[in-house]
Amino acid sequence: MNCKKYTTQYFLPPVRCMDWADKDKIGHAPVWCSVDLRDGNQSLVEPMDAVTKTEFFKLLSDIGFKEIEVGFPAASETEYAFLRTLIEDGLIPDDVTVQVLTQAREHIIKKTFKALEGVKRAVVHVYNSTSLAQREQVFKKNRQEIKKIAVGGAEMLKELAGGNPAYRFEYSPESFTGTEPEYALEVINAVLGVWKPDGRSKPIINLPATVENASPHVYAQQVEYIRKNMDFSKDVVLSVHPHNDRGCGVAAAELALLAGADRVEGTLFGNGERTGNADLITLAMNMFSQGVDPGLDFSDMPRISGLYKRFTGMPVSPRQPYAGELVFAAFSGSHQDAIAKGMELRSEGDKWTVPYLPIDPRDVGREYDSDVIRINSQSGKGGVGYVLKTAYGIDLPPKMKEAFGYSAKRLSDSLHKELRAEELYGLFMDEFVLPRKAFGVTECHFRQIGGIEATVTFCAGPDVRVVKAVGNGRLDAFSNAVKQYVGADYTLTCYEQHAMTGSSSAKAVSFVAVEREGNLFWGAGIDDDIIKSSYNALVSAVNNMLVG
Fold first, then answer.
1. What's the CATH code, domain 440-547?
2. Which pLDDT does position 518 carry in this prediction?
3. Between 20 and 30 A from 142 (CA), which of 39, 58, 293, 336?
4. The dihedral formed by the CA atoms of 430, 433, 436 and 442, expressed in degrees to the nearest 10
5. Which H or E run includes 402?
6. What is residue 3's DSSP assignment?
7. Which strands sit side by side in the sheet containing 463-471, from one edge to the other?
8. Lowest mean pLDDT: which of 169-183, 241-255, 341-355, 531-545?
9. Which band of pLDDT confidence, cut at 50, 70 and 90, is reported for residue 537?
10. DSSP letter string over 221-276?
11. Alpha-carbon distance 78 to 257, whole Å?
12. How would you classify the pairing of strands 31-34 and 263-266?
């Protein structure tokens, strides 16, 4: 691969601009502007029709976007008609401002204003390219000629708006990151000189990384340079529009906000031309994860993902931050164990510090039992124990979790697939509750005779035998009867029982471990009667001992 043909295509500011590097996090949400219906839509193989765009517009409004770029009305009749439908049918909420895009060309600007007639509030976004590469290769114009295009567009917006307070203006020096910062500043200040902002209706200066051609820290320095040196700075909203060619769109947006940007343009899931725009969901949820309210509602992420896929025909990666099917899933045994322990220690109102989970999955509409702990051949004792406890109210003893973890690994490995909660419960029943291959018990009665006497009816196929034994308690007496029946000795090393939490039938579950020749064998019993669940657990454990 010949990398020698490539060179840097960006320009650092003429002075050091690194104040952003001293800030540790974004303190408040920016103004959000969705460009899904324009920048995102123009990148689709099959652009959305008017009905779909209307549905998408409603979704964006429901999420909480107050500024939504709805299209380039002069570009096509579909775009023009969509904007007219929004205005004429009253589909724009009172607190939402629509934004439209136009090149700095007279006939396009005029058609744009015609499409906006009757709108209550709109941002008219005018742009022209200022980069060195575009000046030299595409337009073949010098700096003054390119600046004249920008100024002409700004003058036409002001003239056609005619002082109507419904209109706000936005200017973008397209390919900003490939423009010399001092020249970009010159053009921006020339545009602002036309609009003369006075604080009553702040214009927007937007700095697009039309092609991401540098690391995020370079973009941050460029943004900070404009913020510090722009005329009318306090009366201007500074916006950024990062693209994702280097895979750093979100990072560039975050550093740009630290560098003084007030506003971000982007799309849901980063849709857009080439590698896409900055992903506004990831950006907003990153703030959310650090205790900053982003002002956008992503509490039902599965619904948003489903609608997005239907509207755009684009997939949502299973590893998409915050929204992907697997982003909260832990298959690794050590990860599952850490998550389970972290969840057990949590109390309502605690700050969120659960290992391996940057946010509470419930905050985006996900569930712990089906979305977090996922069981496959890589899983361990913590995971299987967590699933049984959360899904079925069965809290395994620590050592039994280890034994059951190995059983789950073997089954998943043999099937070459993930185990669902119901499959895990079935395995638990088969391995520890229902193994009666050697013998079973049909009856058991106890009486007090200076100790406890157990009268137990054992069966093995058609053979039935009654055995009596005495012990210092019911389970001890029953165990002594079992030892007589099977003709083998063992040590009862563990006995635990609890009510099955969340069970409407209030059943008891008991766990028993027996040891012989250094090996541990487990059994469990589930019954309405605590005593019966206990001796059934012992029967299962001894059966496991006998059949190996």
1. 3.30.160.270
2. 92
3. 39
4. -140
5. helix 398-415
6. G
7. 440-448, 452-460, 463-471
8. 341-355
9. very high
10. HHHHHHHHH-TTGGGSEEEEEEB-TTS-HHHHHHHHHHTT--EEEEBGGG--STT-
11. 34
12. parallel
Query: 207 or 325: which carries more pLDDT confidence?
Result: 207
Q: Residue 173 has what pLDDT?
A: 98
* CA–CA gap between residue 45 and residue 56 (Å, rounded): 17
Q: What fold is seen in the domain 30-288?
A: TIM Barrel (3.20.20)
Length of the chain: 548
DSSP structure string for 424-471: HHHHHIIIIIS--SS-EEEEEEEEESSSEEEEEEEEETTEEEEEEEEE
pLDDT digits (tens, 9 = 90+) for 30-44: 999 999 999 999 999
Where, residue-wise, is CATH 3.20.20.70 in the chain? 30-288
Provide, rounded to the nearest whole percent, the portion of the chain with pLDDT above 70.
97
In order of 13, 179, 278, the CA distances from 143 in angstroms are 17, 11, 29
Residue 499: strand, helix, or coil? strand
pTM of the model: 0.81
Least confident of 25-29, 247-251, 367-371, 399-403: 367-371
Cβ–Cβ under 8 Å, residues 85 and 58: no
> Given this model, what pLDDT does residue 502 score?
58
- Which residues of the chain does CATH 3.30.160.270 include? 440-547
Dmax over CA atoms of the chain, in Å, equals 110
How many angstroms separate the CA atoms of 516 and 182, rounded?
83
In this structure, what token pair is assigned to residue 233? 């700075």
Could you tell me whether strands 97-103 and 508-516 are parallel, antiparallel, or unpaired per DSSP bridges? unpaired
Separation of alpha carbons 33 and 65, rounded Å: 7
Rounded Cα gap, residues 218 and 213, in angstroms = 9
pLDDT of residue 384: 82
